Amino acid sequence: MKIRHYLYLSALALIFASCEIDNYDEPESFFTGRIVYNGEPIEVGAREVRFQLFQPGFGNLAPLDVHLDTDGSFSGRFFDGDYKLKFLNGQGPFKAYEVNEQQGDTIFISIRGNTEMDFEVLPYYMLNSSQFSASGSTITGSANYTQVITDADARTIEFARLYINDTQFVSNNGDYNLGFSDLEVNTGRVSGNTTLPDNYDKDYIFARIGVKIDGVEDLLFCPVQKLDL
Amino acid sequence: MKKYIYFLMIPFLLGSCTSDSEFLDREPTNILTQDQAFGSPDIVLSVLANLYNRYYDFGTVEDWSSLAQFNVAFWSEAGRYGYFQNGGYGYGDWGTWDYGYIREMNLFLERLELSEALDPSDKARFAAEGRFLRASYYFTLVKRMGGVPLILESETYDFSGDATYLQHPRETEAAIYDFILNEADAILADLPADVNTKSRASKGAVLAMKARAALYAGSIAKYGASTPQVSLPGGEVGIPTSKADAYYDIALTAAQAIINGDVGNYSLYEKKPDLSDNFASIFYDKSNNPEAIFVEDYKLQSGKVHSFTIANQPRFGAEEEEGGRINPALSLVQSFETLDGQYKAFETTTTSGDPVFYESPQDIFDGRDARLKGTVIVPGSSFKGRPVDIWAGVQLADGSIVSGDSRGQEKELPGSTGQVQVVGFDGPIDGLEFTAQTGFYIRKYQDPKAGSGQRGTQSDVWFIRYRYAEVLLNAAEAAFELDQPAVAAGYLNQVRSRAGIMTDLTATDITFDRIVHERFVEFAFEGLHFFDLKRWRIAHQVLDGTPMDASTITQNIGDATKRLTQPFGLWPYKYYNPGDPNDGDYLYKIVKPNRVTGADRFQFGNYYSEIGQDILNNNPLIVRNPNQ
């Protein structure tokens, strides 16, 4: 046995020994839920909207970003503990409710084991009863909208668009659509159609309507629908 | 016998330790004390040189990609394709927060003030330079981060355990701009009015900075109104609209002081008869160049050189097997007007859809603004006396294309015998790095000197931070915003006639789009485009995340909010059809390089860079930037 071999052996021993002693357990609690208005989820674009969790009490306060899924749901794995949840100004087609004067819109939550929570927010508009149909290379879509915020903070609709993509991620982000067309915005209803890109060779397509609210960056969407061609 | 030596040594040992109590108390040989450092003008200058050297540039020749961002060019380097394959920018991009630099500038000014050995006029000049650099860095900060804490003296921690007295809130964005403008006024008198002082602060540099800063502040005040969400209630981001005219006034006055020759005889560079060569020379001719006002200078064989030419020279036949990285995009190239001042897309097809044939590859680019060939190396032109070999393939009579996948590849064409070259040695070959993948190379800032393309020599071309043409265009924009379109037209025409455009603009021609366009083509690859997009609040429209297509790219040239989310190319092909009159001619096609898959989107949260979480943790008084 040369010294080198002892070195390898002791290195090996160290590798196995070091795992257990100094590490934390991994976070084990799922924190899941949805962003809703009156129980209805608010649909957004993929990886467009996020909120932040802060966990005070461990020195430097760094936010944990939680992104919303397209159907307004979220899911993350965290350590048990007490957190503060904060919606970011200008993120999402909605406003957060003020909890009370002192607390602002910060929500205190506690995670103990798997936790499921829905959070009520106040959207500028809501979309419902969306309908899509495909005939030939034309995709037709429509949806009804209702204005939710009607006081001084009310905002108009800048445009409504019908987006199509070949995956279930459909949004105004250029990576997430194959094409789009402007829809006609009438009172309480948007409708119109778009055409498939040339040489589209799949036998299905995903369609979705997005509404851009004036001065709000993130679009409000209706649920994605898969259409057979 | 030998042991006597030890006895002899004892008195020496004892004696040496005790006799000289200051034995260890010596002047350091590698550190200058404060008195020494600030005791002679030469050493103060070298302290100052360190501060000059740390000047922050957004774009610089030391980092070629920094000059070619936001899809004005494609980057022909395999490791960088990712820039064109993602959908946007991080909130933290372009951020800067170097308060260490500010502290050292503050220390420099404080120590300089204490020095008694310096001549008062030297001292005043050094102090003015230090304040110029400090104001320049605050300008950098406010452009990228919005209002920041304004620290004008060095601060020291007292180890009391409570650091709150070191925490300062952010000033308003307007307050930082006001600080820069006031500093400019305060230091102006102490600096020389010397056209040949270019790498140190001069009166011209200060006024040029003042004009630019005031113009930026004015446009943020005016155009910020169109994006109310990009502002903070405390004014840390956003400037009240009511202040716009006052800032534009300051900008116009400062720029006119330079134009009227109050601070030295600056003028447009007009030394060469060939206008394209003339335009390119602005950026490398360092002898008696009346246009450059403030530069970062380099020197061969001094260690301070850069490799911009190595990175971007036409690779075929270059001095090093390297180059070709910046490939200007069609959107930029087609923006150069015709000589009679018209926007015109390149004619690639006739109205009936047939290709348009050109006898030589350069013909399609003839009759355009001379800045085109001064900024871009087009197919058929040459660099360092060697023609570039840019053509994408051979088009046969039936419309099919024969091309290769290595530079200058040879193949046999139908109806001919033997191998012939079917693609240029400079490409374009889709996806092959260092070839001209858009069909163009960059010319601006390339060094025509022999050896500039060699790694052992490199280039000493300077980087111009302020030049006279920008002063003119700043004055034009301020005049336009102040409702003096005739004055604006006069300044624009100076810049345009230098570029060979023969039709003068009149007062009625001056629109916002005109101003935007002129800056886009004049300052391409100079690092100013980004801040123009931001201060006019059009970045989120130009970079809206929507892919572009070949049919719409040629429309609305000269429109301020024309989409530019992807770089496109214009590829020349040789026509092969023996017996046909067009045989051997060139035709052009608009293509999107296939490595371009993403479309850039600039979000509201990108207008001002994110302030790092570590900074927010250390100082709870700092508020976050909007929309992040």
Task: Tell me the layout of helices and strands.
The complex is a heterodimer of chains A (229) and B (628).
Chain A (H helix, E strand, L loop, with lengths): L2 H19 L7 E9 L2 E2 L8 E5 L9 E4 L5 E6 L2 E7 L6 E3 L10 E5 L3 E9 L1 E11 L2 E10 L9 E9 L13 E4 L1 E3 L2 E7 L8 E10 L6 E2 L3 E4 L1
Parallel strand pairs in A: 1-9
Antiparallel strand pairs in A: 1-2, 1-5, 3-4, 3-6, 6-8, 7-9, 10-11, 11-15, 12-13, 12-16, 14-15, 16-17, 16-18
Chain B lengths: L3 H16 L14 H4 L3 H13 L19 E3 L23 H16 L5 H26 L27 H15 L15 H21 L20 H16 L15 H7 L10 E5 L11 H5 L13 E3 L1 H4 L37 H5 E2 L4 E2 L2 E2 L5 E4 L4 E2 L7 E3 L6 E3 L19 E2 L20 E5 H14 L3 H14 L13 H11 L6 H7 L3 H4 L26 E8 L9 E6 L21 H6 L10
Parallel strand pairs in B: 7-13
Antiparallel strand pairs in B: 1-3, 2-12, 4-11, 5-6, 7-8, 9-10, 13-14
Protein name (chain A): DUF3823 domain-containing protein
Pfam families (chain A): DUF3823, DUF3823_C
InterPro entries (chain A): DUF3823_C (IPR041186), DUF3823_N (IPR024278)
